[in-house]
Each structure stands twice: as C-alpha cells, then as structure tokens.
Amino acid sequence: MKLLIVEDDTEAARAMVTGLAEKGHQCETAGDGEEGLRAARDGRFDVLVVDRMMPRMDGVTMVETLRREGVQTPVLFLSALGEINDRVAGLNAGGDDYLVKPYALAELLARVEALARRRELGSVQTLLKVGDLEMDLIAREVRRAGGEIDLQPREFQLLEFLMRHGGQSVTRTMLLEKVWEYHFDPQTNVIDVHISRLRSKIDKGFDKPMLQTVRGAGYRLEA
Amino acid sequence: MRLPRLFRTTPFRLTLLFLGLFAAAASLFLAYIYIATAGEVTMRADARVLREMTSLEGVYADGGINALNEAVIERGSVDHPMIYLLIDPQGHVSGTITESPVKAFSGERTWVSFSVADKDPDGVTVRQPARGLEEALPDGAKLFVGADIGEAEFYVNKILRALWGAGALMAVLGLAGGLFVSRNVSRSMAGLTDVIGKAQGGDLHARAEVRGTGDEYDELAAGLNDMLDRLERSVGGLRHAGDAIAHDLRSPLTRLRARLEAAMIEVDAGRSDAKAALHQALEDADGVLRTFGAVLAIARLEAAGDAPGQSVFDAAELAASVAELYEPLCEDKGQEFQIEATPGLTMRGNREFIAQALANILDNAVKYTPEGGAIMLRARRRSSGDVEISVTDTGPGIPPEDRARVVERFVRLENSRNAPGAGLGLSLVSAVAQAHRGHLDLDEGPGSLDGGGPGVRVALVFPSAG
Questions:
Q1: Measured between CB atoms, which of B324, B325, B421 is closest to A187?
Q2: Contact state of B366 with A104 under an 8 Å Cβ cutoff
Q3: Model pTM?
Q4: Angle made by CA atoms B232, B292, A7, in degrees to the nearest 5
Q5: B286 and B325 co-located in one domain
C-alpha cells in the first residue's frame, strides 16, 4: 500500500513510517499542509494520514482543497483534539476517519488498512462472503457452511463490520466507534464479551475458528 | 492636567451635558421673550403716538395753529403726559420739551427712539427711553409727539433679570445635584471596582456588598459575585487538576523511568530480555496517558461551563443502548442485569458525554458487584420534570461519610485499592452532570440482601428541558 504521512512532528512521522513499513507499506512524508497538498494532488496514494494542526496550511484546509479538486483518496485525520465537534469538523472537511492522539501503532495500522479496503470494495454490496460464512444484507440472514445462524441485531451489525474487513485486524475502539457509535473507551473490556458471544455462535461446532483474537491489536475474521 | 476623580465620573459628565443643553434651550427662550416683549412695548408706544398725532392734526385742521398751540399746552400739563413740541414757522417753540430729538428731519414724518430726562419719586433725574414722531404741518410748522416707554421697559428688564436669575440658580443646583449623584454613584461603584481590582490581582475570594435595595448596583454586585463564584470554582478545579495531574503522573512516570533504567542495566549485563522491559514500559505509558486523558476531559468540561454540542434525544433510548453494551458483561460475571426505562424521556444535552457518564457508572457497578449480585438501570422522569438515570447495585456500597469524597478526583476508597482504575470515573460523571446543570446523587442501595452488601444507588439527574 502507498501511504502519504502529512505530519509536522518529524519524530512522530518517523515512528509511524517505521511501524507501517514493517507491515510492508510504502510511506512518503510531508512536513506541512502545502507540501502534503502538492504530493497528494495526483492521487497516487492509497491512503493519506493527515495531522490536523500544522504550520502554513492545516490538515482540514488541505483536505478541503483536495476534495474540491476532486481527489478522492481516503483520509485518516490524526489529532490531539478529541472533542466531538473537532471530530465532526474533520469529517465534514472530507476526512474518512479520525484518530485521536496518542494512539497505538496497531490502531493506526488497522484504520489505514480499513480505509484502503473500503476504497477497493467501492460499490454497494448486498451479499458478504468470508470463507464459508455468508451474510445476506437484504434478507438479514447469516449462514456458515449452509447452516443458518440466528443473531441478535447488534451481533449482526458486529459481524457485518468484521466481514467487511475480513482478513484485517480491527481494534476494540474501531468496533465501539463503528458498531456502537460511541467515541470513548469503556474502562473494562465490554467489547470482548460481545465478541465471545458472537464467536460462540459462528464458530461453535466447527473445527476451524474464524473469529480470532489478535494480541495487542484486536480481532480478525479469517476465512 | 487631569480633573479630580469626581469630575471624571459618568453621572457628572451627563449632568454637565444636560445642563449645557438646558442652558442653550433657556437662552433661546430668553431671547424670544425679550424680542417679543420689547417689540410689543415699542409697537404699543408707536400706536399711542400715532393716535395722539391724528387727534392733534384734527385740532389743527379745525382751529389752525393757535388752537393747536393751546391744545399742546393743555395736554402737556396733565399728569404723566406724553411729550409734545410745537415749532411754529417763525421758530417759536411750545410743549414739554424745548428741543426736538429728531436731528435729521426728512420732511414728511420721521420716527425716532430717544431718551428723556425725568425725575423719579426721590427727585433724582433719570433718563427714560421714549418713542416719538415728528411731522411737518402745511404752514411750515413742525409738530413732535412722543411717548415715554420707560415703565414698560422697566418690566421687561425685570422679567429678564428674573429669567437670568432662574438660569443661574438652575446651573448652581444642577451642578450641585450632579456632584451629589456622582459622589453617590462613585461610592456604589467603588465597592465593585475594589472587588474587580482584587480579582485582577488574583484574589478571587473578595465579594461585592449586596445591600438588598434591589437596584441596578445590587444586580451588578450580585452578577459580579456570581461570576466570581463560578470563576473561583473553575480556577480551583483547574488548580486542583494541575496538582492532581502532577501528583498522579509523577509516580507512574518515576516508575517508568526507574524500570527503563533498570532494564538498561540488566540488558547491558546480558541478564535480561529487552523486549519484556519495553512491553512493560509501553503499558506504563498507556496508563499515564489514560489518566491524563481523563483528567483533561474533566477539566475541559468544568472549564466549558455548559456542555458543548447539545442536542435533543430520548434518555430512555440512550439508557437502553448503553445497557445493551454492558448486559453481556454482567451475565458473564454472573450478575443479574435489569433495565427499566420509561419511553419518551426527551431531554437536551451532549449525548456522547451522557453515554460516557452512564458507561462509567455501569463500569463501577460491574466492577464492585460480586457474582450473584444484581444491577438495575432505571431511567424515568421525576414528578418535577427532571430526567433521572440511575444505577443500583448490590455491591459493598459507599459509606455515607465517603459519598461526597468519592466524587473528587483520584479518590479511591480503601477497599477498592486492588480494583483497576484511576479513581476518575465518578469525577467525570459529576462533571458531565454539572455541565448539563444537573447533579449526581449517591444513595444507599437496596440493603443487605442475601448476604450481599448494602449496595449503592448512583443517580444522574438532569433538569427538564426548556
């Protein structure tokens, strides 16, 4: 994956590049919004990681300009500002996701990969398929190896998100944000309990568990 | 040079301004009265003179110059006479004056304003203003008739003097009144200025005196005191937060530093694995960041006053949504979970903050309630219209004497030392409640049932919308 990191803190940018390169991603960096805008204009990147507050041109202005020019590359905003209104401002400017500093590298990786994947899929799907697991979004039915699985509405949403990101790590925070639409971290791991319930429904009776725990990151649905 | 303080006050300036305006208006009025009365006096005198002249011309037409001469002498001898002068063609004069006041006679008729000498009751000679008319008669004689307007002028002058006097009195009284009002206002303001000065100097304890008169100064003083109360709380909170952050970050940061240092020695000596040390360091750093984030969130909420980003939503729906998040966790821990929410609990607030507050309360309940205990979430509208979201558990409870304390930052009760958490949960809940002008209630739980603890009932109360 080709990534552009637009961040004025060179130390932070270097750490990000190290972590992302480790996972096989190619990274370029830009030190401010103007530089980032020049680099991102031709749309050759898969995902842009943009710091909100930078000298010369801030991240919001940069992304607004890009979107006006018709560049649709997915954008992940990084910010020390975590209030809801800051988040909304970032998303309104054309950002696709918003990550509050400080963050764990695993969180950044998972979100960048999720954004790239979303772009790949593009069109609206009505049938999701991961391995022998199938989800019909219209009939709202889930089957594994042909056998129907009965899910509660929230479990259905949770599985839908995991299936859309099949094969990728998703973090607890991502699940809380995208499935429950809450932007805070519960102190105890409430998400784990939901996952283990879902796991007991989709993996029970099968030799190969699909819903796996990724140490230090979150979960992954493997085919 | 600067004027004395009293003269620089707003009320005094206003007094001067109004005094100036009034003086200008009074001057115009005075001028009008003077012109009107003085003009009237002259006009009336002229009419009298003209009447007399016409009457004497009649005498002259009937009886010639001799009859006219007799008439002039006769009319000139009565009390308060008019002024007469007849000069016959030969230059003989008769009448009440000896010389015509008309210096440049134009031939036909000439009007003149002049003055005559008269004696006042004390025998002093005074000169009085007068109006006169001189006419040439057909045989070459000249007749002059004049009228004394001194008395009328005297009244006009009297009125003028009265007006001037009134004006002067008004100016003096106005200035004195202005000074009096300014001094009173200054005295009222001095208290406020003093309090503001102290606040500027960093003393937020000073309060302005509210005298209970209910006037605008009282309102201002009450408003100022209110503002200072809020400011003091907020600054106190920030100061406390600063101390708390310093205190609570110092120990984990010290631990982190020591651990890194020790790890370096161990790794150098080849006795230990660097990875384990780094892993521990990361965990420590995460802990510090979490604490920092929570303290920051509380401080921001307290500093903001009213919670930002408010919208109207159904509290029952919110309670159900957070309950749905926690229910599996309770079941996993062997706790009985129940929710009771009256639908249609419309309220106004920041949904995200309130969800987080409720999540914190449920976190605590799940953490402290033993297996086999029960947790009850209830959302209802109180009869006062307030919306109440409460969580009751059957955990060990909070002793009444500690209830006020647990809301403070970083306070963790002795028996909770081994449970995870930074002790910021309820502080954040309380900050969220206050940012919505609501409050956090801590009460006794359902009591010691089935060997369980007394439990605790934590209630978030939000005032009714509107």
A1: B421
A2: no
A3: 0.63
A4: 115
A5: no
